[in-house]
Amino acid sequence: MNDIVVQKYGGSSVANPERIKRVAKRVVKSHQEGKKIVVVVSALGDTTDELISLAKQITDDPPEREYDMLLSTGEQVSISLLAMAIQKLGHPVISLTGQQVGILTDGVHKNAKILSVDSKRVEQELEEGNIVIVAGFQGVSIDNEITTLGRGGSDTTAVALAASLKAECCEIYTDVDGVYTADPRMVPKAKKLNSISCDEMLELASLGSGVLQPRAVEFAKIHKVNLCVRSSFNYNEGTIIQEVSEMEKEIVVSGVAHDDNVAKFALYDVPDKPGVATTLFKALADQNVNVDMIIQSAERNSVNDISFTTTKDDLQKTISVLDKLTAEIGASKYKYEDDVVKISIVGAGMITNPGVAAMMFEVFSEEEINIEMITTSEIKVSCIVDKEHTKKAVLALHKKFDLDDTESDMGSAS
Ligand code: ADP
Ligand code: ASP
Ligand code: MG
């Protein structure tokens, strides 16, 4: 072990000067315990949302390069302020941007992927005794352009740095005590999990549990980074993300997730012949649209219907593609809906327990909620339903799968 610890503090943990000073004390404490500390920070509070809103006041369709240039400034404010706070406490510290710590990404603006991390500079600064503060969420592309890593991307910056530095652990500090069985803001009876497997965490994160960016979990799994989620507002034990243990497999459902960043499209009377799906989904991929669920109906009179979902962020791009392609592939029309939500249950124990999906559908039936689309994998079942049913559905599923906690409440920002 090289005694390096990477700590990441999210926006709410550094929302104002008082909180920044408190994080500074916490960082210094870890440093005094003899660790070499690398801190990744997000933009202050809701800064990223405010920057997006500023851009929207200038233009409906901000050019992606300039959007990244703008959004990356948020993290630069927080690294400098945190470095000042630590320096004031009398400790050697330096703040560095994504580019300065060698975070090389692809050129996909707004959602870039990290290709490599050249952590020489960080290692050198640590050797010199500095606490290193790094701007999350940003990198530089092979064409030397500033890129951002998608919403929540500071988590991925932290894990990627931890992997590159072979850090002993990567601690994600946020405004709740750890990973819960459902979003504790929606489900007051959600339970904090002491540990969760990488695979389950990956599903929960991908299915809308905003506590971790999915790519961060993926990175941690591939590079075997010891990852945990904790509160920056107290010293309670957090949640450890680890390889699956036999005991966990006995838990059928570990969590319920919901995601309303979903748009649903249906393409009608698509000719039932080879090549049509390729044309459609290749055109979407060429625009970097991530397609999630895909359903093709049974063939009738040589045509069928194809439904799929994307994120709401990709709504306009998908509409442009369908405007062009619907006639070209011989379909009669398309429709879309963006007032839907994806509700999911996740659990490693589903593989060995038949009937879990049926239990989920039973809940929807009892609550008189119509299911519009369904997908399953070995460890999750997801349903698209009308957005107005979100809370009712999540609470009912949480109860049905025995996840309700009657004793404790969430450890929230105080
Ligand atoms: P940060 O600014 O620290 O990155 P985020 O807002 O990105 O914080 O993530 C923390 C939030 O994630 C919590 O406040 C909580 O509302 C939400 N969340 C959603 N699902 C879960 C879950 N299963 N467990 C814990 N938090 C969750
Ligand atoms: N500030 C960025 C966001 O709000 C990145 C992050 O917080 O992880 O998405
Ligand atoms: Mg986050």
Structural class: alpha/beta
CATH topology of the domain at 4-175: Carbamate kinase
The major beta sheet can be summarized as:
8 strands, mixed
Overall, the morphology is: globular
Fourth-level CATH superfamily of the domain at 4-175: Acetylglutamate kinase-like
Read across the widest sheet, the strand sequence of neighbours is 3-6-2-1-9-11-12-10
CATH class of the domain at 4-175: Alpha Beta
Bound molecules: adenosine-5'-diphosphate, aspartic acid, magnesium ion
Helix proportion: 25-40%
Computed over alpha carbons, the radius of gyration is: 22 Å
Give your account of this protein's structure.
The chain is of the alpha/beta class and 414 residues long. Among the domains are: 4-175, Acetylglutamate kinase-like (Carbamate kinase, 3-Layer(aba) Sandwich), CATH 3.40.1160.10; 263-337, ACT domain (Alpha-Beta Plaits), CATH 3.30.70. The chain contains 12 helices and 20 strands. It has helices at 17-32, 47-58, 64-88, 120-127, 154-165, 198-206, 214-222, 246-249, 276-286, 315-328, 356-366, 390-400; strands at residues 4-9, 36-41, 93-96, 103-105, 114-117, 131-135, 138-141, 146-148, 169-174, 195-197, 227-231, 239-242, 255-259, 263-271, 294-296, 303-310, 333-337, 340-346, 373-377, 380-386. An 8-stranded mixed beta sheet has the order 3-6-2-1-9-11-12-10, with helices on both faces. A 4-stranded mixed beta sheet has the order 5-4-7-8. Strands 13-18-20-19 form a 4-stranded antiparallel beta sheet, sandwiched between helices. A hairpin with a 7-residue loop joins β11 (227-231) and β12. It is globular and about 75 Å long. The two termini are 35 Å apart. Residues 10-11, 42-43, 48, 74, 136-137, 151-155 line the site of aspartic acid.
